């Protein structure tokens, strides 16, 4: 679903928390960012990779104790006046505290990567779900 206002166009997409669905949702977000957000190719890649990490974490961890995958939703809003992009990835699963990562671990870098790519990351982990907020100050790479 896409909502367009002059100041803050928004897209909301959702589906089952499964890897194949992560790819579909990422493609929808990618197309929307291309159409709406004036950023460089590098900043666009940062936005999509951080969003992908948040969705992948949801697919991998939120519903570990269930047979069937639950749902996840992604809402992306571009605030024209502030040249800021906000991404919120939400699920209804259980928050799983990240395990300590060893230097040789091949996985477990999603939150670190999100923090490196976004200007601000907030993770609200609850027993009834998790919301990951990624904020990007797109202004620093706005195309002229």
UniProtKB/TrEMBL annotation:
Highest taxon, organism lineage: Bacteria
Matches recorded under InterPro entries: Anti-sigma-factor_SerPK (IPR050267), HATPase_C_sf (IPR036890), HATPase_dom (IPR003594)
Cytoplasm in keyword set: no
Keywords, alphabetical: Kinase, Serine/threonine-protein kinase, Transferase
Annotated ranges, domain Histidine kinase/HSP90-like ATPase: 16-135
Gene Ontology MF annotations: protein serine/threonine kinase activity
Protein name: Histidine kinase/HSP90-like ATPase domain-containing protein
Species the sequence originates in: Mycolicibacterium sediminis
């Amino acid at each position: 679903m896409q909502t367009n206002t002059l100041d803050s166009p928004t897209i909301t997409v959702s589906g089952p928390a499964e890897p194949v669905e992560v790819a579909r949702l990422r493609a929808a977000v990618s197309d929307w960012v291309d159409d709406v957000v004036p950023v460089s190719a590098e900043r666009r890649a940062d936005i999509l990779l951080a969003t992908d990490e948040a969705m992948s974490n949801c697919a991998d961890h939120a519903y570990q104790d269930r047979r069937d995958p639950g749902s996840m939703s992604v809402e992306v809003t571009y605030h024209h006046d502030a040249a800021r992009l906000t991404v919120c990835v939400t699920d209804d699963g259980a928050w799983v505290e990240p395990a300590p990562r060893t230097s040789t671990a091949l996985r477990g870098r999603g939150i670190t990567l999100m923090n490196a790519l976004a200007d601000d990351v907030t993770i609200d982990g609850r027993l009834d779900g998790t919301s990951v907020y990624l904020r990007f100050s797109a202004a620093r790479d706005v195309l002229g």
